[in-house]
Amino acid sequence: MSGRPGEEPAQDGERPATEGAGAGPVPQSPGTAEEPEPSSTGRTRRVRIRRAAKVAVWMVVVLAFLALGDRWAVLYAENMAAQKIQETLKLTAEPEVHIESFPFLAQVAAGHLDHVDATVPDVPAGRVSVAQVRGSVDDIRIVGSLPSSVEGAVLSRVRGQVFLGFDDLNREVGASQVHLAPGTGKNTVRADDDVPVAGRNAEVRGRAHLRRTGDHGLAMTVRDVRLVVPGLLTYVPGKGGGLQLAAPAADKVDERELQQATDQRVRPDQRMKDGVLDALVEHPAVLKPAGVDPSLIRGLRKVQEPKVAQSMEFSAQLPDDVPGDLRLRGISVHKDGVRAELTGTDVPVGQ
Is the distance from CB of 224 to CB of 209 less than 8 angstroms? Predict the structure, then answer.
């Protein structure tokens, strides 16, 4: 096929360019268009973000390991402190020690700790055992050079409680029948016991009073002791005491016979003093309708108030070698036992 004059023939597979005003640019196949290159500012920002994320992750990992090491150091220190307290106070049970100081290692390096709590069980205190001593210490100053030459510490402020449980006191005070419970008056304790009298059980009831003895001890004294045979009579031993029949029994006593036997006008529901009791022992028929045997009166009169009261008293004393100015303060009675405040300042330990 012949072309126009001056034109070279088209090669196989080629198409001649179209001439004319309507001819446009040659279309390109999809995907062949050139993409704009990202700016250098965007690439720099993304690189910085990735680097910051890596640094943050490594910081979290490092802080986690430091915190874990700090906690292990605290556990070790708590265990060593508990063993030292147990050894010093000769305790049968190991106390609980909690160090609330963070960061612990940094504070140890600086030579002080912020706060420590300790609970010490079963502290020997003379006749009885203190059920629990709980203490809270602020600002502990470490004495000596770290880490191997620590001589001890100074406890700047100590606050705590000494607790004596009624359950423990009931087992250890006097006879096994003694029962201690909160009294009706402020900081008073009710002391009850059982004693055999002429073949019957009489309830011993007394009013106990708590007081501090010095800076390290407390004691309980019992007063107003009386013996009660429920439903029958109440007997108060000692000077000024006497016998008083319960209402059901008093109603069965003939007042005229009572007056003839005692040469006194005594109502059976009133207290019968020593002279009246002597006459009643000699005239047992007067109280027989009430069910009162003369042997019971003779047995009651043999009960001595000081001896009964003494069997129910107790005292507790913290160890004499308590360091520093640790002292017992206020005493309060609660439903489960007796609590005394413990305070101290600048208490040396282990020096």
Answer: no
pLDDT of residue 151: 66
Asked if residues 295 and 312 have their Cβ atoms less than 8 Å apart, the reply is no
**Domain residue spans of the chain:** 60-166+332-349, 175-326
**Cα 290 to Cα 245: distance, rounded to the nearest angstrom:** 9
* DSSP secondary structure string for all residues of 192-231: EEEEEETTEEEEEEEEEEEEEETTTEEEEEEEEEEEEETT
> What SS3 class is residue 162?
strand
Position 228 scores a pLDDT of 92
d(CA 276, CA 256): 14
Q: How far apart are the first and last CA of the chain?
A: 121
Counted residue by residue, the chain has a size of 351
The sign one gets for the Cα dihedral 46, 48, 53, 54 is: positive
| Mean pLDDT for back-to-back runs of 10 residues, the chain (351 residues) | 46 45 48 53 72 66 60 77 73 84 78 86 73 86 63 82 84 69 83 84 86 84 88 86 88 89 84 82 87 86 80 75 77 88 82 59
Contact 217, 196 (CB under 8 A): no
For 284, half-sphere exposure in the C-beta direction (CA atoms, 13 angstrom radius) is: 8
